[in-house]
Task: inverse folding
């Protein structure tokens, strides 16, 4: 009877180990646009890819600013309004794009220290499953032609 119990225990342990799913997060094209000297905030954009087998969720961003938030943009009567959100779902096997006019990161409290082309903004993305993921946002010149209709 002991042999059967040990065999069952070994099987259950092996099953639990192989059933563990994981989130594997990759960040690409992380950038922030340069800001005017008087700007109080700047936006961060990127692509988040989850190549794992478990859905994940971006729940926070840390960077050296007084406040950093995850935002979405809502349009009402043709007017854009940025809204704070608690997180961004990143389903297994999918890519979520953070871009102007949609999901993005807000670096708030620039206090007269604008984001300048050529700089980098180090940040830590916090995911429910993957934990902390370090990222560098490259500050680039805003190409207004790309945003016109």
Result:
């Amino acid at each position: 009877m002991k042999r059967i119990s040990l065999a069952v225990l070994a099987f259950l342990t092996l099953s639990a180990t192989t059933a563990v799913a994981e989130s594997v997060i990759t960040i690409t094209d992380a950038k922030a646009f340069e800001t005017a000297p008087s700007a109080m905030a700047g936006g961060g954009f990127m692509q988040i890819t989850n190549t794992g087998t478990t859905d994940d969720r971006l729940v926070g961003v840390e960077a050296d600013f007084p406040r950093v938030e995850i935002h979405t943009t809502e349009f009402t009567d043709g007017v854009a309004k940025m809204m704070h959100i608690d997180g961004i779902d990143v389903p297994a096997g999918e890519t979520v794009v953070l871009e102007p006019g949609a999901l993005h990161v807000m670096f708030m409290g620039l206090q007269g220290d604008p984001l300048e082309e050529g700089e980098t903004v180090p940040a830590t993305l916090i995911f429910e499953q993957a934990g902390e993921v370090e990222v560098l946002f490259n500050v680039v010149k805003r190409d207004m032609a790309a945003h016109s209709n």
About this structure: The mean pLDDT is 86. Helices lie at 2-18. The beta strands are 25-33, 41-50, 56-63, 67-76, 79-84, 88-90, 95-98, 104-108, 120-127, 131-140.
